[in-house]
Amino acid sequence: MDIFRCIKFIQTHLKFTFDEVDKWFEKENATLNYQPLNGGWTILQILEHIYLTNLYLLILIEKGSRKAIRNYYHLDVNPEIKNCSFDKEKFEKVGEYRAFEWIRPEHMEPKGDLNSYEIRQSIIQQYRQCLHYLDLMKNGEGLLYKTTMTVNELGKINVYEYIYFLSLHAQRHLTQMKNNELQII
């Protein structure tokens, strides 16, 4: 897949995922605050976790995009574009709930400091940030900077792949929220 189709694919994935996440805010409070039988997070806590994870991933994405754009002025992006290979399969497990052990840092655990409106507005803004970075790097700039991703041993990934990772992380938790809701019925 060439980089321009890759960017379009990530934009589409983000829209679908964030639209699906946003639908959960329309649920009744009883559903949002239902405590699963296994003692896991409520849907509202999962939504807060998505927000918190996005917050920290976007810090890295912002730094990566700045460095990639700086590199764009000093490096030739054409060889990177020519040799670009976007391996979606390498990332698929990230979007699957419980596909592998994932130990998250404590700062990404929900604390209950925000209400559902605040979480929702923050997630909407985070979606817009992702689109902004993709637009900012629409010429392949995101290929010019890589960061190591230790989750599921992904290794060095470029800025576009980092944004895709963010979207997959949210997708992962859609399944978890559906499982919670199924327990209520």
Keywords:
mainly alpha, Four Helix Bundle (Hemerythrin (Met), subunit A), DinB/YfiT-like, two-stranded antiparallel sheet, DinB-like, elongated, 185 residues, 7 helices
Chain-wise SSE layout:
Elements: H1 3-23, H2 29-32, H3 43-72, H4 78-82, H5 88-91, H6 116-136, E1 146-149, E2 155-158, H7 159-184
Antiparallel strand pairs: 1-2
Helix pairs in contact: 1-6, 1-7, 3-6, 3-7
Pfam family, one: DinB_2
InterPro entries: DinB-like, DinB/YfiT-like
Domain DinB-like: 29-177
Could you characterize the architecture of this molecule?
It is built from seven helices and two strands. It is mainly alpha-helical and 185 residues long. The chain has one domain: Up-down Bundle (Four Helix Bundle (Hemerythrin (Met), subunit A)), CATH 1.20.120. Strands 1-2 form a two-stranded antiparallel ribbon. α1 packs antiparallel against α6, α3 packs parallel to α6 (116-136) and α3 runs antiparallel to α7. The N and C termini lie far apart (42 Å). Residues 29-177 form the DinB-like domain. It comes from Chryseobacterium cheonjiense.
Share of residues in helices: 55-70%
Q: Class in CATH?
A: Mainly Alpha
Inertia-based shape? elongated
What's the structural domain tally?
1
Main beta sheet:
2 strands, antiparallel
What's the Cα radius of gyration? 17 Å
| Structural class estimated from helices and strands | mainly alpha
Domain DinB-like: 29-177
Organism: Chryseobacterium cheonjiense
Protein name: DinB family protein
What can be said about this structure in brief?
This is DinB family protein. The chain is 60% helix and 4% strand.
